[in-house]
Design brief:
Layout lengths: L2 H19 L6 E5 L11 E7 L17 E7 L2 E7 L10 H13 L4 E10 L9 E9 L27 H14 L3 E8 L8 H9 L4 E3 L3 H9 L3 E11 L10 H25 L2
Parallel strand pairs: 1-4, 1-5, 5-9, 6-7, 7-8
Antiparallel strand pairs: 2-3, 3-4, 5-8, 6-9
Helix pairs in contact: 1-2, 2-5, 3-6
The structure holds hypoxanthine (HPA).
Hypoxanthine binds next to strand 5, strand 8 and strand 9.
Length: about 280
């Protein structure tokens, strides 16, 4: 079997496995990031599966990530959510980490909602802020679409001129105002990690127009675009880089800040989802 056939059959196998177990075709696929597990707490869950029980799924290895797939409803919409994601720095390829998105697309999602913990670069930002992503810069030096194109999902050269759905950005801003949640907006720079940014890198990222920096999300978003999904990304700003007054970043503080942002983000997502057609 060639690689394309083998990738397609792995996706189909995982999708068939899930379809047999899920009550209703999901409308929305969600990915919750580091410390943001509370995003699934509001769901009416009808199935919770450890990744290791799903055929061909990678397995999450890091602190703050659960590694379960949850299916159910949120605000009366059918949802499938990944509690915990995969990162390239764990040793996975960009293709591996985006495998679950292909599977969720295959079982019918139209929307992909992503959250993650990020470092703030915009000097107006404060830790615990939320930011809706309006554009990104892929600095991973990699791309999940390398290799033979999976024609059943999308084109060889997907257009990236409007990756983040404008209507969802508008809706998120409306719901944030309504609920009194402060919502920043800006450009996300996706790096490989796992080392954090040096002060010179931080200055460089600001210069090229990034407002926040993280080690996930861009590969997932690129595959989401390839699958034709409507994408919304809201990130928690867990720390802010001040290149002129550098401070050490601790992963404990990052997780604690994401956990603080989690309930705000969960409320916002719920309000947004309740308004979807
Ligand atoms: N840099 C990269 N990724 C991150 C950061 C950061 O400062 N904070 C949380 N995730």
């Amino acid at each position: 079997m060639n690689t394309t056939n083998s990738t397609n059959s792995k996706i189909t196998e995982a999708a068939d496995f899930l379809r047999e177990r899920i009550k209703k075709e999901p409308l929305i696929g969600m990915i919750t990031g580091t410390g943001l597990g509370s995003l699934t707490e509001k769901m009416d869950v009808d199935l919770r599966l450890p990744y290791k029980e799903i055929p061909n799924f990678p397995i999450s290895t890091i602190e703050g990530h659960k590694g379960t797939l949850v299916s159910g409803t949120l605000a009366n919409k059918s949802v499938i959510a990944m509690e915990g994601r995969f990162h390239i720095y764990e040793g996975y390829s960009p293709k591996d980490i985006t495998f679950p998105i292909r599977v969720m697309s295959k079982i019918g999602i139209n929307y992909l909602f992503i959250s993650s913990a990020t470092g703030g670069l915009n000097q107006q930002f404060e830790p615990d802020d939320l930011m809706i992503v309006t554009d990104h810069i892929n600095l991973t030096g990699n791309n999940p679409l390398l290799g033979p194109n999976l024609d059943q999902f999308g084109p060889r050269f997907p257009d990236m001129s409007e990756v983040y759905d404008q209507d969802l950005v508008t809706l998120a801003r409306e719901k944030a105002l309504e609920t009194g949640i402060s919502l920043r907006q800006g450009v996300y720079a996706g790096l490989l990690g796992p080392s954090l940014e040096t002060p010179a890198e931080t200055r460089f990222l600001r210069m090229i127009g990034a407002d926040a920096v993280g080690m996930s999300t861009v590969s997932e978003v690129i595959v989401g675009v390839h699958c034709g999904l409507k994408i919304m990304v809201i990130v928690a700003i867990t720390n802010v880089h001040r290149p002129e007054a550098t401070e050490k970043i601790s992963i404990e503080e990052v997780i604690a800040s994401a956990e603080k942002a989690g309930p705000k983000l969960a409320l916002l997502w719920e309000k947004i989802i309740s308004t979807l057609p």
